[in-house]
Amino acid sequence: MADPALSKDELESSPTTTLHSDNAPATAPAPSAGSANKRGFQLNLHDALSPDQTNEDMYDVPDNRFAFSPGQLAKLFNPKSLDAFYALGGLAGLEKGLRTDRNAGLSTDETTLDGNVAFEDVAPKGTPKYGDRGNVMPTAKTAPQPALHHPDGQFVDRKRVFRDNRLPEKKAKSLWELAWITYNDKVLILLTAAAVVSLALGLYQTFGIEHDGASVEWIEGVAIMVAIFIVVAVGTLNDWQMQRQFNTLNKKAGDRTVKVIRSGKSVEVSVFDIMVGDVMHLFAGDLVPVDGIFINGHGVKCDESSATGESDLLKKVPADEVFAALDNIAKGGTPPGGIEKLDPFIISGAKVNEGTGTFLVTAVGVNSSYGRIMMSMHTDQEDTPLQKKLNRLADGIAWFGGGSALLLFVILLIKFLAQLPSNNGTPDEKGQAFLRIFITAVTVVVVAVPEGLPLAVTLALAFATTRMMKDNNLVRVLKACETMGNATTVCSDKTGTLTQNMMTVLAATLGKSLSFGGTDAPLEEDVEKAANPVEIDVPNVPVGEFTKSLSNTTKQLLIQSNAVNSTAFEGDVDGEKTFIGSKTEVALLTLCRDHLGAGSVQEERANANVVQVIPFDSAVKYMATVVKLPSGKFRAYAKGASEILLSKCIRVIAEPAAEELTTTEITEGDRAVLSQTITSYAGQTLRTIGSSYRDFDVWPPPELAGHDDVTAAVFDKVHSDMTLVAIYGIKDPLRPSVIDAIKDCRRAGVTVRMVTGDNILTGRAIARECGIYKPEEGGIAMEGPVFRRKSEEELKELVPKLQVLARSSPEDKRILVRTLKELGETVAVTGDGTNDAPALKMADIGFAMGIAGTEVAKEAASIILMDDNFASIVKGISWGRAVNDAVRKFLQFQLTVNVTAVALTFISSIASDKEESVLNAVQLLWVNLIMDTFAALALATDPPGPSILDRMPDKKSANLITVRMGKMIIGQAIVQLAITLVLNFAGPQLLGYDMSREIEATHLKTLIFNTFVWLQIFNMINNRRLDNKLNFFEGITRNWFFIGIALIMVGGQVLIIYVGDAAFRIKPLYGWEWGMSIGLGAISLPAGAVIRLFPDAWAAAMVPHVKLNFWPFNLKSKKKARRAQKEADDVEAGKLEKGLGAGAGAGAGAGTSAASEHSDDSFEPSQPLRTLTSIRGKRATTHIRRGFREYMHDQKVKVKVKGRGMGAGGKVDVAAPGVGGKLPETAGV
Question: Where is this region: Disordered (predicted)?
């Protein structure tokens, strides 16, 4: 066992050479604290800084200008180590060793550092530098990480030694890797094999046999290989582009700003620029990005469940207090009670749930304990629901194509074999003919397999997420992009989302004798108040006269109640001095600075002796700060919801102009006037904030005895008998774009609900102003406390009409989201606070505020609003619909080509004397390239037009292929097949081609091929619309990508016709043939118009509702049935075992009858047994095998039950269900 902790004097006199690997000194007397330490905590410095095998390289830092290496600092965490904290000298040692200042932070002028600090200068004397290794530098078994070289700029040495707060980028797949992945497709490999065989035969025919003229039989094999190469190349480039776009998005998603102290000033820096040695602010709602040691603060509690698995909130204790306790133990003192709760460690990945404070950063980036996981968003994107749905559809189509190809191959093979006796060709020609049949069948599979479906949705999502970023929507979870298009309701915060979050104090009422502003007419009269109006008799003066009327004592009271009782602070933003923090607090601090002559916030707080900070709690709607007065008394300032604070007040400031602070009781008349003031402010869309105070003789007061940590809920016990200071009216103007955005939502069938913490009057007035609240349409407004008391049935009846939820808590928001989802709505919700996280997670789409949102809210959200603007949500809806539309457009186009190409190949191959398709393998591969890649690129990049919001959102259960799409697919397929088959079979007669001449026969085939491709090009334009409107070209000029892809397809086709004669087995066409090809292809457009005019209801009525209960369409249902059967059997086995076990244990000699009796209880009458087990005999059930594991389980049941029966002295005749034997008598009932 390790030796008990040594006292500091013993450590000083004990040379480090006496330390052995077993952590015990060779000759060290037992310290006086030994007996105390035996009762619990032991301080052990001999192993505190020992390197682990995994981090030895972190100890080796050349030219280290600091006292510690990253390896030594890492010993503070994983697990948290008080030993390491003491061994490093506590906060004072870390401060000196890291060359920083706990008050001023790092210097903004720091570049390189002169000299160095030795470990021995900061650690307790005698502390071994490397733990059980003594002072011997550990030898790394792995090569140390390469140092970061920053020859110039800030913090050069600091970055070199401790690195910056960036993680190594996930290695992207190279082009070659992506190409290999793209090529590893079974069909492409099969086609490659066919192409190799074709090329070998072609080369043999070309060079191994004498010919009269030129022979190019090898061209077809080469052409197929080239086509495969193009397909792979295009797919690879697309994947590479997707990879780049998502990497860019991931980088943006990981970046955020944090607040640190540098050169004595609080500044905002990027999370990537945090340095070891920085002093960083902690606020409720923060997600800690780095490791560190807590300096000081008020009521800081962290949720470390995501980092350590610890589910309880952990209160943080200032580092100096912890070190003092440890130093006392080291000197032989008794460990204090609850020493395990001394926790100064701020661990990366933790969430700050309560309180404010500062901490010293000790590890960043790759050296932090949890930063790698929490900061990195370089995760592979999962398939979205739409992608999964499309993958299943693609599999179904592939099965259909494979079945068609197999059937075609069998038919052509039979026909080929039947014609062999009369075939006078050479063996080579016969082999070539057979190979042609095989290639045709394989090509049908290639055409039928819709590789472009996953590509289309990936392209649409990538294009949409990139463009959404420009519209201030940062998509963190990819599936939210497509889900957003089907949102049916948006629950929006008010402040900063619907309003500008640029708050200004426009009105204030001080006590009952002075006020300024707030005299505008309200937007709406409150019905209840209008019946008995109360006249507001508080004198109202301009703001300049208001401030002149205040004594210095009153001014100081107002300043302290706002500056000290606040979490906002001064800082620089874009070179300008301003306040940083809650916009409400910023507005109040600005009033104090501009009109009350307040000094700097830091100065005001330094002059006040703050003894307790009670952070804002959304449950009680206020925050408080307790300060010690020069008289020795304590004063608690409270600030929050005005009506709540007014209800807690019994006194009010009497005479603001008097130098001595006087108060008077609030009469019923005074209370009515003050309540009417709040109502009046709220009716003018002003946000009302109340301020109050109460003096205490001692703190904490007797009522709070036993509470180590005073939260708002605890403070509520003494939140009474308060004195009202003032009621402020703060204006937060609506965003200019909000009214139009809400009109767009109504047009799109999306209901907007306002969820606000303001009182119902303010919320209702602002909701009416921006068009959310429509009482004339049956809309209702309600307060949170009333809402949360409703029953489930009342909520479901109420929520569809609810438009404003005021004075709401995060729990109210969660209840609202849950109820809406139960009603079948697709819910989007906005949130900015830590407590909003449950609602954000529960919603289908969670929007976190990028500016005002806490890091916890951002982590819970799926989309971050970079500008906190409601109009950006509407843009998100448009883009979500554009994604769904893009996929449907492509699906409609691809299924048309699939049906047409497979049917055309099938029919023409069977009808041909040579078993040849009218479209050969190389031509079909070109068509496949058009429909799989080019069309995906063109149709997936259509931006949303204004008309995209002119329809209702789709339901969650909506089919991927709608009736309107099916109508277009079938209609266009019929038109295309009619044109190509007429050309193929009647072309010679109609157009005068002499099929006995090879050149004219080739011309006809070229004409058919050209016409088929032009049909697809025009059909792609036709598929730009999914509705029944006839303008195919709407918005086409806004999508230059579509125009460019269409031109590439046209250019490629013209090039093929003129120079691809050998590879594609075609001939250049004449002018009239070009005209006919394009003219026939253009029929797709008028045909599309006619199909659109055909009523959807008629089309739906014509479709027979047939269930495809045959292979391969029933594979999924059969699997589901087998799974259900297995679950039912398992349930029965469990019930039988329970029943038989009860019967066997009832008593000796119970026998079968006992088992039967007890089985009445074990078999539930509400779930009768399947009649199968009762009707079928023992022989039949014995031979039913559900699988080896189930069989063995059943045998074990038999043995166990038999053993119980024999042990009880009785005989039990038992067989497990599904194996054999008789069931208890009740089984047949």
Answer: 1-56, 1142-1177
* Confidence check: pLDDT of 1092 > 90: yes
pLDDT at position 54 is: 65
Read off the pLDDT of each residue in 599-608 and give the average, rounded to a whole number. 84
Q: 281 by DSSP, 3-state: which?
A: strand
What string of DSSP letters covers 311-363? Answer: -SEEE---HHHHHHHHHHHHTTPPPPTTGGG---EE-TT-EEEEEEEEEEEEE
User: Which secondary-structure segment (H or E) carries 266?
Assistant: strand 265-270
Write the DSSP assignment of 484-551 as a string of letters.
Answer: HTT--EEEE-STTTTB----EEEEEEETTTEEES--SPPSS--HHHHHS-----S-B--HHHHHHTS-
| Burial classification of residue 665, based on how many CB atoms lie within 10 Å of its CB (0-12 exposed, 13-18 middle, 19 or more buried) | exposed
The region of weakest confidence among 495-499, 810-814, 1203-1207 is: 1203-1207
Q: Which residues contact 1 (CB under 8 A, 6 or more apart)?
A: none
Of the residues 493, 868, 885, 932, only one is catalytic, namely: 493
830 vs 393: which has the higher pLDDT: 830
Q: How far is CA 311 from CA 306, 308, 640, 1213, in A?
A: 9, 9, 30, 51
State the Cα angle at 854 between 850 and 855, rounded to 5°. 90
In the three-class reduction of DSSP (H, G, I as helix; E, B as strand; rest coil), residue 1169 is classed as coil
pTM above 0.85, yes or no: no
Q: Report residue 847 as tokens.
A: 């929007």
Indicate if 932 belongs to the active site.
no
Is there a contact between 940 and 894 (Cβ–Cβ < 8 Å)?
Answer: no
Task: Give 1012-1026 as a 3 state SS string.
Answer: HHHHHHHHHHHCCCC
Q: Higher pLDDT residue, 138 or 77?
A: 77
Q: Residue 151 is which amino acid?
A: P
Q: Which two tokens stand for residue 82?
A: 């008080």
Q: Give the phi and the psi of residue 721 in degrees, each rounded to 5.
A: 55, 35
Amino acid (1-letter code) at residue 556: Q
